[in-house]
User: Fold these one by one.
Assistant:
Number 1:
Amino acid sequence: MNTRCSLLRLRRKQFIPSLLTLLSICVLLLVKYSYITDLLLFPAASDVQTFHRYNVNCSAIYDMDPVEVGKSLTIRSEKVVEDEDESLVNYTSNCSSFHQSRGYNDVCVSKEEKNFPLAYSLVVHKSAWMVERLIRALYSPSNIYCIHYDQKSSAQFISAMEGLARCLPNVFIASKRESVFYASISRLKADLNCLSDLSSSEVKWKYVINLCGQDFPLRSNIELVSELKKLNGANMLETSRPSESKKQRFTFHHELKDVSFEYQKLPVKTERKKSPPPHGIEVFSGNAYFVLSREFVAHLNASVVVKDFLAWSEDTYSPDEHFWATLVRLPGVPGEVSRSQPDITDLMSRTRLVKWQYLEDKLYPPCTGQHVRSVCIFGAAEMRWLLNYGHWFANKFDPKVDPILIQCLEEKLQEKQKFFQSQTLKTCPKG
């Protein structure tokens, strides 16, 4: 009998730790499930919620930690709530609160940045919070920012842009605005309108950079200043000899016509051949994005050749993709790239890093986000590659595709800005 009781007591003692272990595992699983549920349904918020933020470790994602990258994929697989333009309209109705909640009051300026102001032309049409986050990532009180919103944009988006311009003294709306249609002259004119306004600004900026709403910087402002100073007056943009297929874009007359898909209107090729470019200009091909010196822009504004070339480009397809690439090759322009020099491709120009689907696994690793018309919308697993490739900006980003990447780029850029500013003299707001 005593032996039987002893065995029962022994089994009970062995069972209790096992039960406790099982209960502990269940509790841990419940905590983990609750954590993930909270993470997906209730994103972490700052003291004043401005847009959705998520509880992720960006340093671990940068280091390609499989658990943290996996967490970002889990978040992305859920339906991501889009931040409404109306909420930015509401926040900018109180500029003081907006400055405080978004940290504009805390931005320091190094002596190097103050002496080398930059100008931006932002041609945008939707996703107001993404525009604000783009400006915030690049923000310096010494810079100046021109916003050109599409005349077709929603009333809420326009109100949000006007709110940004009202609250930020170095942000303004272009004095002349276009109804922008894809691949038409209107896209080029939108940038030209901002360049005209920026040229008459009291801010003596050194370089101007154009951006769209799905761009994001890969360098902090102080890093950009350091890189641009090295150009020593040269311009940075893609300029290559056009392929036979691209020559069709400016060899034939194009007409803006209604189309049945998302663009509404599109330049359509006709069979009518165009006259040769004026002044014997040799046309080069590139993209819509540039980094231009102040001297180059001043030359454009005063040049009859440039004015005639712009008029000639009116009925071409996507004139912004040959206009800048050609002008930088004109003899005698500030920062001229000689026509005899080799092509400057998009991978050689640091202005914009774009990942094309048909070049993945050849020139760069596969897209971890998703493709739209053969262009990669980047995912969080590409953050390390993006920051280390060497370009200054990249395209495309979309918070509906991967909100984690944008949030982590913001965090990394702020870290780098603070680190590089710590190495130099800087002026910070009082208080």
Number 2:
Amino acid sequence: MAARDGRGLVPLLAFLGVAAYSLSMAVVTPALPQIQAGLGTTAAGAAWALTAMTLSAAVATPLVGRLGDLYGPRRVLLAVLAAATAGMVVAASAGSLPVMLAGRVLSGVGAGVFPLAYTIIRDVVPAGRTASAVGLMSSMLGLGGALSWCMAGPIIDLLGWRWLLWVPVLGLVPGTVAAWWIVPRSPSRKGARVDWWGAVLFAGWLVAALAALTQGTFWGWTSPGVLGLLAASAVTAAVWLRVETRVREPLVDPRVMRLRGVWTANAASLLSGYALMAGGLLFPLLVQLPEDTGYGFGGSATQAAVLQLPASIGMTVAGVVAGTLDRRIGSRAVLFGGAALTGAGYAFVTVAHSELWHLYVGGIARGVGLGLAYAAVATLVVLAVPAGETGAATGVNTLIRTVGASLGTQVSAVIVAGVPGERGFTAGFALSAAAMAAVLPLALLAARGRGAGGAPERPPSAADAREERDPVPDGSLPAADRP
């Protein structure tokens, strides 16, 4: 009965779970120098603390989403939260780099909270409120980043870098208990099977591709290692696609990925992920460059973090209001507006970055725009696919955003290193503006639905049935969703 009575708290639990995982992912970025010194490793070794979790998350996200579709999101969510918590404990207490990396790999399984949360929201939230719930959950990505930058300096100075890794545990442990108590059970599909061959092949080509992207800067983009990884990825991906078109229940159904509402949203996610992490590298780097370069600001790491804070808050707020906008103008218009605002922010700093306020203006526009865009693409995917494919489809969308983020970091680093002086930053900002300009036609191509606000219609869920039985004319929560 606890799960049924607490049904109205389920979306809140999903939001908090996603925020805790986002914090665990982002929290090592400001602590990389301290991790390097504390574990006695190199800068490249410390960077693997982030890379290891990214690779693990990329593989786990669509697989966990598929498992949630087949066996019910509750039991899979509990396993994912337990694995992520254990991984964070191992990483926080690690005395060597290999142990740290093992913990981070295990923590990466927690990325599965994204597609599971979307599935849970679709199950318990009525269709008219789905966009609001999805937008709020998407905003948790910005909240996790904002919290990590706010906490990093004081925690490192007062308690040490390891406590940055313990903080997410303080959110994951009660989150796991609350999930066990609140999230409703759902039946498994009869005769459901996991496409394990597809999962292995998928992991193979994806890890090879992401490893090439993340190590290209260190090994050289034309090195045998990078070229070999890219070739192995291409061959394995071809085999994987062939397998997925032939099995009865594929890990990722190619037919679903070809839906207009899905492929346009996925392409927009790739470009938006690029724009997010390109700015995450370019803005702090420009702030911390010495003033004698003629274009740097000579700022500290704290000043660079403060610069990121308004953008992260703007991204969070934009995700919250995106659902309201979706009901009024539709997800396509929200995506278009978010892409235009993000592109305008980057275009502004392309031509004006000589004063710190220029970076604040461009950064806030970037954050608010990406908050709207992320919420819109998630809603487009959730409403475009059958209910039984929600976890897998949103898992792939989250994965593609991760790939775009990796591209944003690596490509921007190459541009700044290869184009001398201020022109490198100008080129990096301009390329990010162009990436968001490419999202505009994708927004126009996205499927036009028949539901309210232009959202595609979908089969009624259990939440819709509850609202049908207990309508509330004044617009407040239906009885089943009230605390």
Number 3:
Amino acid sequence: MSTFRTPRRRARLALAASITVAAALTGPVSQAAPSPSSAPSPGAAGLGDPMFPLDGNGGYKVSRYLLDFDWQAPKTPFEAATTIKATATQALSRFDLDFAGNTLHTVTVNGKAATAVRDGDELVITPAKPLAQGKAFTVQVTYTADPTQIRHRDDAIEDYGWIPTPDGTVLYPQPNGAKMIFPSNDHPSQRAPITFRITTPQGLTAVANGKLTDRTQQADGRVRWTYDSEQPLATQLAQLAIGRFTLVDSTGPHGLPIRDVVPDDLVAPTEQYRKLTADHIAWLEERLGPYPFNRYGVLVGDTDLGVALETNTLSLIPKADLLGDQVSAERNLVHELTHQWTGDSVGIKTWSDLWLSEGHARFYERLYSEAHGGVVFEDTMKTAYANHDQWRHDYGAPAEPTEPNLFKRMRYDGSALVLYALREKVGQETFGKIERAWVTKYRGKTASTQDYIDLASKVAGEDLDGFLHPWLYGAKTPPMPNHPDWVVNPVQS
């Protein structure tokens, strides 16, 4: 990733980074709503998130993305168009989209040519006429997509963006790689439904989040696939995969449709673990309540990337995870499935809230694994406790990550430990009520760390802020309730 900044971009970055930490912890910055008579002004170039200040954009709210991809072959550029339906939340003289790489062709706003200037990962758009506050508008961007775009992080994410497979691709947009795939409002708090229309050569299958609504054979022999995500989703959780796939249908609890997407030669080798999904869903429903979406499935990634991803309704699981031992396979399957409740349905307001997503997924993954041949849950938490001060030193407290350390160990076992401490504090029955209330109250919404503390306090009938705040933000690990013998190892510089 280039670190070059134009003078204008440096100024904008400094402005965005100056957003106060207090505001960031309660959610992305929202500008005060101007009166309808206010003069048009530029929308904010970023939402001021402490991790990625210029991700997301101000001045509008997206109501739907429509993606048109004319796929050709692996690692081969292809023609694409993104149509964005949005509503102006202020009178706009111009606005930004997050858009990286790719060869830009045209930009229109409400069908009229607009001026578009690229500034790093920002596409700055000036419509022919200012946009009135409260009015719906449509943006269309045409471009040549580059399916070789990949960026790298030195944490659990590794490579992200377009991840090639032998005969196609899978997507790995987390954390902020959606901008390499389509122009967007690329921040986890900004969610909207997506319609995918993908044209492929005959013999290839395209899949995406949600429901297949149409498959049309065209006169030239190519096939157009249309999917509707059905529910709003964060851009980091979009999935679009193309390849020689077999679609394996089954049924989960309460008649839930399950469709696995499997490379043809991996159907039989991965069947043993894939067929456990219905049992995993039933196990999680006992603890978190009804599965929150209309369908689910596993997308088997035919890649060397050893990272799974909880893309909405279609979790990406690397083939290596499904070709090894059962305990490891089920840990990963349950982890990504848990995210459908916490991280996908209940989204995060800022990247500092990531502990709520990854901590929950690791907590239930470990809890399930203990009962199915894995390590004793309490033992893993005791080990995490011993290392917690070191992780705080190296990676930041659970709710205070830094950008390079966002997906480090603290956001996984270190954050699961916070939930374990809460369970020890309030008892298993009350903790279960907190968890079910969390995924029920915020189903289909975004929520913050403070939202979780407030809800936990309400359900428990006691103010838990004083208990949870040191666990989430303190420099030192607090004592573990009910375990006075647990010791934190000294920090090594």
